[in-house]
Write a structure and sequence with these properties.
It is a single chain. By secondary structure, the protein is an alpha/beta fold. It has 2 domains: about 240 residues, Aspartate Aminotransferase, domain 2, CATH 3.40.640.10; about 120 residues, Alpha-Beta Complex (Aspartate Aminotransferase, domain 1). Helix content is about 40%, strand content about 15%. It is built from 12 helices and 14 strands. It has a 7-stranded mixed beta sheet with strand order 1-9-8-5-4-2-3, sandwiched between helices. A 3-stranded antiparallel beta sheet has the order 12-13-14, with no helix packed on it. Strands 6-7 form a two-stranded antiparallel sheet. Helix 3 crosses helix 4. The chain is globular, with a radius of gyration of 21 Å.
Length: about 375
């Protein structure tokens, strides 16, 4: 699904030198490389504060912890997402309220948000899934109307632009806070675990900087209940190098997506990823909707030909056993359920060659021609 070996070979001299300098300095935790990456990412995103942390799940948890929420407070979130988005809600004693998504974008549906708001609702967590951007204009309007916080889960869409009334802005900087993961397979990934939170709010930034460091602003004086969640220097150094290439990486992914789009245009029962003029899809995944096609059979057919494909995600959060105590299994989310039976993601990464794309497409065509309805 992603070729990190070839990507490394293309930046090997820079990465090797940066890691060697950290090993020689032995400044492994909160060293200059972390501060440099923080500054680099703030500039790239045009955001006041970036708070690096240990991983994307921690980023979401820390953002929620900064809001002084109480047990039972409700957090509106899509069910069609990776489990990290929702498990941190339950972990903090809060209540996840699962809502449906838009059929075309896979992102949280604003009308579903409106219908789910109660007097206990405190936060909306939109997920920019697969590199597509949620309808942030409408979401922010709803949040302003009801006095709610918005925490963007930007783990799959870092680098994307979204057009607001004031102009184009980077996703993750539109809500009160944004969170991302630097898991190796992400568009901006490190060589281990890593994450970050973004905000333009000085007070929230100050609290989160304390939370990631055991709740202290001064060593051994702990004002908040916090955690130990730090981005180490080696990962930060790798990320600074890859951040300089992020737009180039995104362009490479879009070219792969363009190739796929042209190939699939001849099939009416295959829906390619939605694109619009409001946002720029960064194609963390290239995800098809297959209607009237045996998705699982195609998935296996491709595997037999050494073509990786993935189902993101086969079981939505509201149907996971971990949330049964919230009665989520009784939630009706027809679009989410429909999508989980039809989505299939194909390989997409920065190092894809034309012959690889041709082989993937010809394999799919072979399946479709021999499995016509």
């Amino acid at each position: 699904m992603v070729d990190l070996v070839s990507q490394y070979q293309n930046i090997k001299p820079e990465v090797d030198q940066a890691i060697s300098e950290i090993l020689e300095s032995a400044q492994f935790i909160n060293g200059p490389a972390v501060k440099q990456f923080q500054s680099d990412l703030e500039s790239y995103l045009n955001v006041k504060h970036v708070i690096p942390c240990a991983n994307g799940t921690d980023a979401l948890q820390i953002a929620l912890m900064a809001l002084d929420l109480k047990p039972g407070d409700e957090i509106i979130t899509p069910s069609f997402t990776f489990i990290a988005t929702t498990e941190v809600i339950a972990l903090l004693g809060l209540k996840p309220v699962f809502v449906d998504v838009d059929k075309d974008t896979f992102c949280i549906d604003p009308d579903s948000i409106r219908n789910a708001i109660t007097d206990k609702t405190k936060v909306i967590v939109p997920v920019h899934l697969y590199g597509q951007v949620a309808n942030m204009k409408e979401i922010m309007s709803i949040a302003d109307e009801h006095g709610l916080y918005v925490i963007e889960d930007n783990a799959q869409a870092i680098g994307s632009n979204y057009h607001m009334d004031k102009g184009d802005v980077k996703t993750g900087t539109i809500g009160h806070m944004g969170c991302t993961s630097f898991f190796p397979s992400k568009n901006l990934g490190c060589y281990g675990d890593g994450g970050a939170i973004f905000t333009n709010d000085d007070d929230l930034a100050g609290k989160m900087r304390m939370i990631v460091n055991h709740g202290q602003s001064k060593r051994y004086y702990h004002d908040l209940v916090g955690c130990n969640s730090r981005l180490d220097s080696i990962q930060a150094a790798v990320l600074s190098i890859k951040l300089r290439k992020l737009d180039e990486y995104i362009d490479a992914r879009r070219k792969v997506a363009d190739h796929y789009d042209r190939f699939f245009a001849k099939w009416d029962n295959i829906q390619t990823p939605h694109r619009d003029d409001v946002s720029k899809h960064v194609f963390h995944q290239y995800t098809l909707i297959l209607d009237g096609i045996d998705r699982d059979a195609l998935n296996q057919f491709l595997a037999d030909r050494d073509v990786p494909s993935m189902i993101y995600y086969p079981v939505p959060a509201h149907k996971q056993k971990m949330f049964e105590s919230f009665g989520s299994d009784q939630t009706e989310l027809p679009i989410t359920d429909w999508l989980t039976e039809r989505v299939l993601s194909l390989p997409i990464h920065t190092e894809m060659e034309p012959d690889q794309l041709d082989y993937i497409c010809s394999s799919i065509e072979e399946f479709l021609n021999t499995n016509k309805a």
